[in-house]
Amino acid sequence: MSGENKNLKLAIVGTGIFATDKHLPTLDKLPNLTPAACYNRTKAKAETFASKAKIDPSQIYESLEDIIKTDSVDFVDALLPVQFNLDAVKLAIKYNKPICLEKPIAANLDQAKEIVHLANGSDVPISILENWSYLKAIEILKKDVLPKIGEVVSFTYKSTGAWNDNNKYLATSWRQNPEHIGGFLSDGGVHQLALLTDVLGEVESISGLTKQIREESGTDDILFSTLKMKTGTIGTFTYGSSFGATDKSTSFIIYGTNGSVVYDFSPDLPKPTITYQTGASSQQASKKTVIEVDENDTFVEEFKNFAEAVTKNDKSIVHVTAAKAYHHLAIVGAALESSAKNGDSVKVEQP
């Protein structure tokens, strides 16, 4: 692309664990992206991060507004407790500064809806960092496999695992006492829902039951549900990592009128696999075809996508828009509402 190698300077807003352990190593892989400024509510944490990121101490800012309005950076990478995402977006639009924000999009649907309306009414590129939307498997399933299995009629999506006592994010106060709906259900669940909806389209309604297993989760942490997609496809969605000892299992089975496909991306596999067979009945079943997926570095891909949008000043390039991320959080919101109504079907809100 034209200008793709232009060096972009970015501001890191929120310099906690994820900024250090994931964003900084990702940016190191992208020579055209340079951390040039940072801000944290606790200045000492910003200073520690600046040292690791080789950011000049003069570029450590003491307010969110000051770092967003500075002309010394090209875009903002925000890793804030999500209840502050709306404030960051307002400032980004005020100062015409592209911004990407860690998921989920907001603490609740009202805030998320406001972000969508702000984003729709501005030309400033705004991206929500839901990196699972950049999985290579999504395009393989959509373009290469689903056309072979006929009309998609149903699915089973399951991502379950054991509680991890050593989860370093448990010490994060905003996760222990979540202001965002669903707590860990939305924090990790939006990834799962990004994958599901990128493959099969948007969810129309959900009937679900949630439950809290771990006190440390701060709120309900498992979800068992039935979904109806806007296409009419029906299926089940099960998510939670708060169970007792059990294997981590992540699989997505899609059933069609002329076959089926199993996408297994359980972490104990050498590579994720897509296995499909075709045929309208057991008597007509083909042999199974197995595709091993050499998966993307999805963190690299999401920053490459946003860098292109910033370089070209074209928000249409952004892959995970505010509206798209809103839908994923709205599914969680509908699931929680359904559970409060003993599993009644609840329509997913529109922004």
List the helices and strands and how they pair.
Elements: E1 8-13, H1 17-28, E2 33-39, H2 43-53, E3 60-61, H3 64-69, E4 75-78, H4 85-94, E5 99-102, H5 109-120, E6 126-129, H6 136-145, E7 152-162, H7 173-176, H8 184-200, E8 203-211, E9 222-229, E10 234-243, E11 249-256, E12 259-264, E13 273-278, E14 289-292, H9 298-312, H10 322-340, E15 346-347
Parallel strand pairs: 1-2, 1-4, 2-3, 4-5, 5-6, 7-10
Antiparallel strand pairs: 7-11, 8-9, 8-15, 9-10, 11-12, 12-13, 13-14
Question: Which descriptors would you attach to this protein?
Answer:
single chain; 351 residues; alpha/beta; Rossmann fold; Dihydrodipicolinate Reductase, domain 2; 2 domains; nine-stranded mixed beta sheet; six-stranded parallel beta sheet; globular; Gfo/Idh/MocA-like oxidoreductase N-terminal domain-containing protein
Structure commentary:
The structure is a single chain. This protein is α/β, with parallel strands linked by helices. It has two domains: 8-130 and 298-320, NAD(P)-binding Rossmann-like Domain (Rossmann fold, 3-Layer(aba) Sandwich); 133-297 and 330-347, 2-Layer Sandwich (Dihydrodipicolinate Reductase, domain 2). Helices cover 33% and strands 26% of the residues. It is built from ten helices and 15 strands. The protein has helices spanning 17-28, 43-53, 64-69, 85-94, 109-120, 136-145, 173-176, 184-200, 298-312, 322-340; strands at residues 8-13, 33-39, 60-61, 75-78, 99-102, 126-129, 152-162, 203-211, 222-229, 234-243, 249-256, 259-264, 273-278, 289-292, 346-347. Strands 14-13-12-11-7-10-9-8-15 form a nine-stranded mixed beta sheet. Strands 3-2-1-4-5-6 form a six-stranded parallel beta sheet, with helices on both faces. Helix 4 (85-94) packs parallel to helix 5. The two termini are 33 Å apart. The model has no long low-confidence stretch (mean pLDDT 95).
